[in-house]
Design goal:
Number of strands: 6
Mean pLDDT: 88
Domain Phosphoribosyltransferase: 133-223
Family: Belongs to the ComF/GntX family.
Strand content: 15-25%
InterPro entries: ComF/GntX_DNA_util-trans, DZR_2, PRTase-like, PRTase_dom
Distance between the termini: 35 Å
CATH architecture: 3-Layer(aba) Sandwich
Low-confidence stretches: none
Helix content: 25-40%
Domain Double zinc ribbon: 5-59
CATH class: Alpha Beta
Oligomer: single chain
Bound molecules: zinc ion
Protein name: ComF family protein
């Protein structure tokens, strides 16, 4: 963590091109512009591509538990590589940059009562030493003056890696993965995660948060993949 704090205090070369730091911490302005931005023609509920920003077929036939989703980027090269860096280094620089970009690009800032970062299971947290969604949530929280609630929701079951599972199995895999320890009665909640793939994890978390009484739940993610 000390390294990360130093990274933020002293300009670093761009993580993508190694050029001088001319833009945001960890990424230079030209590389930032070249990233796969995902700001047009998306389903407002799940952020999949959808013409004229209309609700997509999937959300019409089987609505997810969350009410809205905003994704900054498509999960493609070179962004995919950049987000991998979260796991190794540059945590604070990237969280700072991505958190600020979320706030600056979300179509409207909701009146929210709290921000809940995607919880990691305790074992995973100990293994990794940090939760990248929490680091992004802290930046968003400071910018919007909305508190981060990292106590109410817990991941109570370590879930096996999702990537190799078919979609239906992913949904089943997430059942009962989270619990809320206190009520969220009538609250408007923002859920924050780094990458949204099928949305199974966010859907399971949103379901749990709504079962605890939340009124409106929206997901903010750095990147969204499109294939199920
Ligand atoms: Zn660069
Ligand atoms: Zn949709």
């Amino acid at each position: 963590m000390l390294t990360s704090i130093l990274d933020l205090a002293f300009p670093q070369p761009c993580l993508l091109c190694a050029g001088p730091d001319s833009g945001r911490p960890g990424i230079c302005q030209p590389c930032l512009q070249d990233l796969p931005w995902h700001l047009h023609d998306t389903c407002p509920q799940c952020a999949l591509p959808s013409q004229h920003n209309l609700l997509c077929g999937q959300c019409i036939s089987l609505a997810p538990a969350f009410d809205a989703t905003f994704s900054l980027f498509r999960y493609q090269f070179p962004l995919s590589g950049l987000l991998q860096q979260f796991k190794y280094r540059q945590l604070l620089s990237l969280a700072h940059t991505m958190g600020n970009l979320l706030v600056e690009h979300v179509p409207h800032i909701p009146v929210a009562d709290c921000i809940i970062p995607m919880p990691l299971h305790q074992e995973r947290l100990q293994e990794r030493g940090f939760n990248q969604s929490m680091e992004i949530a802290k930046v968003v929280s400071a910018r919007l003056h909305i508190p981060v609630d990292f106590r109410t929701c817990k991941r109570i079951r370590p879930t096996p890696p999702q990537a190799s599972l078919p979609y239906k199995q992913r949904l089943r895999n997430m059942q009962g993965a989270f619990e809320c320890l206190t009520t969220l009665q009538d609250m408007n909640v923002i859920l924050i995660d780094d990458v949204m793939t099928t949305g199974a994890s966010l859907n399971a978390l949103a379901k749990t948060v709504k079962a605890a009484g939340a009124k409106h739940v929206e997901c903010w993610v750095i990147a969204r993949t499109f294939s199920p």
